[in-house]
Design a protein that fits this description.
Layout (H helix, E strand, L loop, with lengths): L1 E7 L9 H15 L3 E8 L12 E6 L9 H8 L5 E6 L4 H12 L3 E5 L6 H5 L2 H18 L2 E4 L2 H10 L5 E3 L22 E5 L9 H13 L5 E5 L5 H10 L6 E5 L3 H9 L3 E4 L8 H8 L4 E4 L5 H6 L3 E4 L4 H16 L3 H15 L2 H13 L1
Length: about 375
């Protein structure tokens, strides 16, 4: 069996894009299990160098006209043997519609991981356009794939509402503990440190909720500070909000960070926040938990029940500024009671037990074989 993962991009693990990290980890793990694994990436710059891989990486040129795909992709598909299984990552990507039409033409099977693109909140954004696009394109993909890989129960329920006929499997993403630097610098601040790492986008990541919750916390004499790792289109609006509400001395933008530098910043946090409105299953939360940091997450991360059941942080069931403010006071209490490290240790054990890439890779291979 030849396993081919298809992704928009280069599956570069050294970028902020969570989907690319997932594809890289899954391909590495399936290769280590002895399978022939390739990653195909559609990118504007296939000729540029990227990180060395243990699996085959084939990059194809993306086109400005999304109604066509590069001829080299068509040729590569036509040369695939019948024992090839494709695993497609993402949703609402025009190239994938044309790609799957070719797979159907050549009788090649595929499964799909939407990575949160069919979540109810994601579909509401530009709802009319997405509804039209879905009916013309995505529905065809869902109708011809062998299975839809859901990352959490919430995502599965949302997909049932838009396409109940697809076979759906529930398997989370994973986290490699060996990717977490062992010699992290744990800088203990005198006040609680709340953190975030990822793209600075308002609606998907819920950063407006995080800022509003932090303001309520500070208005009620909370002593902590908020540190944000990343960059994005919401940066200027966030900075204006911080200035308007006199939060300049307690909210800090750390910019984009990678590797040990990123993990050292995360290790300095007392709690990692992800109040998302729609997600698949965010890699950033898995990394923070594996780093031994208590996590505070919304239901839309598909991590809430894991966090709650393993006492690894706080599950924001309503995901409101008031609830976020209350959670910050809870973190503050834990800090002064010296409970942060124990809850962080629970988070590490949660990752080891529930998010082991080896087990996840084996489960998906079983699906491919079906």
């Amino acid at each position: 069996m030849h396993i081919i993962h298809l992704v928009l991009g280069k599956a570069n693990p050294d970028r902020m894009n969570g989907v690319n990290k997932v594809v890289d980890n899954l391909a590495k793990e399936q290769t280590s299990l002895g399978y022939r694994v390739s990653v195909w990436g559609i990118t504007p710059a296939p000729q540029e160098q990227t990180t060395a891989r243990v699996y085959d990486l084939n990059l194809f040129q993306s086109k400005k006209n999304k109604l066509v795909i590069d001829a080299s992709i068509k040729k590569a598909i036509s040369e695939c043997t019948k024992d090839t299984v494709f695993h497609i990552h993402g949703g609402f990507i025009p190239e994938f519609y044309h790609f799957t039409k070719l797979l159907n033409k050549y009788g090649l099977d595929f499964i799909l991981t939407p990575h949160g693109n069919y979540a109810a909140n994601a579909l509401r954004k530009n709802g009319l356009l997405k509804s039209i696009y879905f009916n013309f394109f995505e529905k065809n993909i869902l109708s011809t794939c062998k299975a839809v890989h859901c990352l959490g129960a919430g995502e599965k329920n949302d997909i049932d509402k838009v396409h109940a006929l697809s076979k759906k499997i529930l398997i989370p993403n994973g986290q490699r503990m060996e990717d977490i630097p062992s010699a992290k610098i744990r800088r203990q601040a005198s006040v609680p440190v709340f953190g975030y790492c990822g793209r600075l986008t308002r609606d998907q990541k819920g950063l407006d909720l995080l800022l509003a919750g932090f303001k309520k916390y500070k208005d009620k004499k909370g002593t902590g500070e908020l540190r944000l790792i990343g960059n994005g289109e919401y940066m200027n609006e966030m900075q204006a909000y911080i200035k308007k509400n006199n939060l300049i001395d307690s909210v800090f933008f750390l910019g984009t960070r990678y590797g040990e530098d990123k993990f050292n910043e995360i290790a300095a946090m007392d709690a990692f926040y992800h109040p998302s409105r729609n997600e698949g299953l965010p890699t950033a939360v898995l990394e923070a938990a594996a780093n031994g940091i208590p996590c505070v997450v919304s239901a839309f991360t598909n991590m809430g029940e894991y966090i709650q059941d393993n006492n690894a942080g706080i599950f924001l069931k309503d995901n409101t500024p008031d609830e976020i403010s209350q959670s910050m006071f809870q973190i503050e209490t834990w800090k002064y009671q010296n409970k942060i490290e124990q809850i962080g240790a629970n988070a590490v054990e949660m990752i080891k037990q529930h998010f082991n890439w080896n087990n996840i890779a084996r489960d998906l291979i079983s699906i491919y074989k079906e």
